[in-house]
Structures are given as C-alpha cells and as structure tokens.
Amino acid sequence: MATLTQDVKQLVQEKAKAIRVSIVQSVTAAKSGHPGGSLSIADVMALLYYVEMNVDPANPKAPNRDRFVLSKGHAAPALYATLAEKGYFPKEELLNLRKIDHMLQGHPDMKHTPGVDMSTGSLGQGISAACGMALAGKIDNADYRVYSILGDGELEEGQVWEAAMFAGHYKLNNLTAFVDFNGLQIDGDITKVLSPLPIPEKFKAFNWNVIEVNGHDIDELHNAIEAAKAFTEGPTCIVMHTVKGKGVEEMEGQAGWHGKAPSAEQGVAFVNEIMGVQ
Amino acid sequence: MGKATREAYGNALARIGKENTNIIVLDADLSKSTKTDTFKNVCPERFFNVGIAEQNLISVGAGLAAAGKIPFVSSFAMFATGRAFEQIRNAVCYPKLNVKVCATHAGITVGEDGATHQSLEDISCMRTLPNMTVVVPADEREAEAVVEWAASYEGPVYVRLGRAGVDDVTAEGYTFKPGKATTLVDGSDVTIIACGALVGPAVEAAKVLSESNVSARVINMASIKPIDAEAIVKAAVETGAIVTAEEHNIIGGLGSAVSEVVVANKPVPMEFVGVQDTFGESGTPKELMAKYGLTAKDIVEAVKRVITRK
C-alpha cells in the first residue's frame, strides 16, 4: 500500500483549506445553504479529487473516468468548491451559488454543472445511482471506480439500505461509500432524532467491507481508500468520524450551522480563521 | 381477445435486447408477471433483480443511464409510479436520464388482487413530470412498436402496460410516433378518444352507434404526452363533441389531457368515461370493467349524452 509523500499530503491539506474557504465564501454570498456538513467533508473531497480519482476537468464526461456521487446533496458547496478548485469552472462562479440564472443550484445538477456526475439532493437516492454506475462498470468490465458520500442522518432513509443490500448482493467492489459521521442532523443529535447507530455493523451485515477512520486525517483516509481498491469481494464503506463545521470554531459541533449562512462579517472572520490570519 | 400488452413487452425486449447490448433490464421480484423474464431467458447477463425495492429500482436505473446504458425498469404500475414517484421525478426526469419505466398491471383489470394493486392514477402522476414521455399502448402490436421506439429514443419514458388480454386494434405495419394519434374509425357526429384497454370498447361503441345513425370517429391516443393536439382540435372542429375513455381515474389522465387541449383551442362538449374518482375492489377484470363503467355500453351512453349538449 503506497503511503502519501509529505509533499502530496501537504498539497491535499492546502486544497482542503482552499475548499473550506470557498465553502464559507459561497454560502455567505448566497445567504443560505449548508456550511456545517460541507466543512466536515472538505478533507476527503480534496483527497479524492487531487489524489485518488482518475478525473480530467478538461474532459468531464470521459467514459472511463472515476465517478463521484454526493448522496448528501445538501453539501453541494463542498462539491462546487472542489470542482472549481480543480478547474472544472471558474472560481468566481462560486459567488453565484443559489442565484437565479446561474448554474450552481442549491443541490447538485448534473445537467448544468461540469463535473457533477449525478443530480442529487433528495436523500437516499444518490447511493442507489452510484450502485447503478458501479453495475454499469461491472457489465462493461471497465476499470473505473465510483465514490459516494452519505450523511449519517441520511442513513435514516430506507432507500439507503435497499442500495446497501443491492451493492452487497452484486459484490460491487468498484463502489466505495463514505459516511460523514459527524453525529448531527437538522433537528439535533442523530441519536436523539432517530438513531442510525451502530453504523459499521449495519454495513457489515449487508456484506460490505467496513473501515473506520478519522475523517480529517489524510493518511487514514488514504489508507482506507487504498484498502477499498484492493478489496475484491464487495463494496467498501468508509465510516469517517468527522466534526460538523470543521475548521471554524464557532460552527464546530453545532447542529444550528447545518443549514444557516454566516453574516457578511462572520464570513470574513471565518475565512480568516481558516486561513490562519490573526 | 388478443394478447396482453405485458406479453408484447417481454417479447419485444427479448427481440431488441439481443441486438442492442446497451439494454439492461431491472425488475423488482415480479419478472414472471411483468414478463421481463422473457428477456432474462435470452440475455441473463443483462438482467438484474433488485428485489422488492422499487425506490432502488428506479435510482439504480438512473445510475445505469448516467453511465451510458439503456435501462428498462419494471414493476407493477402501482409500485413503480406510486412508491417510487419521487425517484422518477428527481433521479430520472430532472436530469433527463435515459430510463424506460415500463410498468405492468396498470388499471382495474389487475382484477382479483384488489384496490391496493390497481393503479388508477399513474398516467396523471407521470404526465405531470417535465421531460417525461407517457405512452399507453392499446394492443400487442402497438406495445411492441412502443418498446422498440423507446429503446431508440434518448430520454425518460413511461410505458403503461396491462395484465389482461386486449382486443387487437392497430393495423399491420403500424409504427409508433410520439405525439401522433391514430384514427381507427372515421366519423362526423362525435369523436371517441381512447387509450389502452378502452380502445377496443371504443371501436365496438362506434359500431353500435352506427346502427342508430350516429357517426362516431374513434381515435387511439397512445401518446398521452406529448399529445396529438392537432388530431384533438380537428376532432373538435369537425365533429363538435368528444368523449374520452380510459382505464384510469377521470382526474388527471387522458380525459384531462384532452380537455386541456380542447378548452384552449376549440371548446366543445365533452364526457369522460373512466373510474369516477374511487378505488377499485376484487373481482374479475370483466366484472370490474362493468361495475366501474368502462365498457362499450358506457361509451355509447356517454356519446348520447354529449350529443344532446352540442
């Protein structure tokens, strides 16, 4: 298993920071959106698009590309920030998030945003679509892989388990799902709203390979993704222990920041905090 | 009585699926009833059972389509369009993905299984979705033609298929064109516009009416969306009255679609033959069609009523 060089790791960390900055800026400009669950997945997004995935911003529809489905579609600001950083479209477009006559919809829209592989937003459906893409890859004997990120609250959707059963049954080892296990959903603590715990055991019971990691540790994430690539018997679920709002102290661990935009002043302060400016 | 449209669906899938290897068929544990097992028997490597999980059925289809496949996904109309409505809306129609939802056992002729299995609102639900094409084949020949067309068209399609045998009504050499209706009987006093299992009874009604010197035109409106507005307006202008007939709730289905065109272009009196906003019950298809007012006799009576309003 190839470990990341210090240089590559540093690049990913810098990109994760840039993605966090863009998330705060775009949601602030939009005056609405979902910053908490976007910030919690910034590290894995940077790692996927800069190290793990075979993608080319100049050719976003290449048939043999790896696919990414943001099943927790409300974290669109993280996806858009990543795609813009990577060069799929100009970064200035991020400031037009959720605005009329612009392409960055409140939830991902594959028809209008280059690099978005599946329209999502209604929870539970993205993981099923990812299963369909992985199945197509199997049918064609293609070597592309499919990645999808689920929210922990999203696991309350019954369709997730229909998809989990399907992926396990058809041994979709080209599929890797991440669970953003930050413990919070709109109405509060996931264990108080309707507990989806235990998460790893559930996926194991559906015949998935399950790996638990610190979702903000680039090495742990990388090792888990490498292990998923090497696993031939079925799909892999990487349960990422994360902090909602990661990178902005005021937002960290606060359900209230699930779907609330910072004020203009807060936006500036949060960006400075992420960038380490005193 | 000819074959059921679901039989034609299975046969057409098997025929075109052998040649077009992009076709993938998904079913939710009903392949023997929906007849996708006919495809499975010839192309087992491209048939996938998703189990009793209709939401996943539709969304997996969306993923396959996003990866370049042509998925035909099947279940009973009730579950495909009812239980998985939102998946069809958000994962198929919104991104305009190339998924063919071919649902069988639509309407009241499901029979003995009763109201929980009798879909009487699927035309209404499907035609309200942007990017969706909605087709209700009337007989075996038309069903085969529609499936063939659907495989060649890029975009979401809903095909409504029945469980019970239906009269053969289309002519030899028939080809399906979306937005194009077929006139089966010409007439000048009234037009009966029907779809699916009610096309046969509509033709029969026209015969009965001719005996009392009422000249009824019969149009088979298989393409509910896009609808053949030209044929509807022509019928309104030339015959001055319209009766619609469908195995569906009178709210939201063919009758509503036709009346939308009529009132916007050439208002004429209309009558609606269909299920009168009620649930069905167990019984034989024949008994149910009679009890819920879906026979040739019901069409004849509706024609007589509409003519008095001209």
From TrEMBL, chain A:
Q: Write down the required cofactor(s).
A: thiamine diphosphate
Q: Which CDD domains match?
A: TPP_TK (cd02012)
The name of this protein is Transketolase
Keywords from UniProt, A to Z, are:
Metal-binding, Thiamine pyrophosphate, Transferase
UniProt similarity note: Belongs to the transketolase family.
Highest classification ranks of the organism: Bacteria, Bacillati, Bacillota, Negativicutes, Veillonellales
Which residues does the UniProt record annotate as the domain Transketolase N-terminal? 13-277
Q: Which species does this protein come from?
A: Veillonella infantium
Query: Would the keyword Metal-binding be found if you checked this record's keyword annotation?
Result: yes
Give yes or no: UniProt keyword Metal-binding.
yes
Automatic annotation (TrEMBL), chain B:
Question: What's the source species for this entry?
Answer: Veillonella infantium
CDD domains in the cross-refs? TPP_PYR_DXS_TK_like
Ranges where the Transketolase-like pyrimidine-binding domain occurs: 3-169
Output the superkingdom of the source species: Bacteria
PANTHER family annotated for this entry? PYRUVATE DEHYDROGENASE E1 COMPONENT, TRANSKETOLASE-LIKE PYRIMIDINE-BINDING DOMAIN-CONTAINING PROTEIN
Stored Gene3D superfamilies = 3.40.50.920, 3.40.50.970
Pfam entry (one): Transketolase_C
Name listed for the protein in its UniProt record = Transketolase
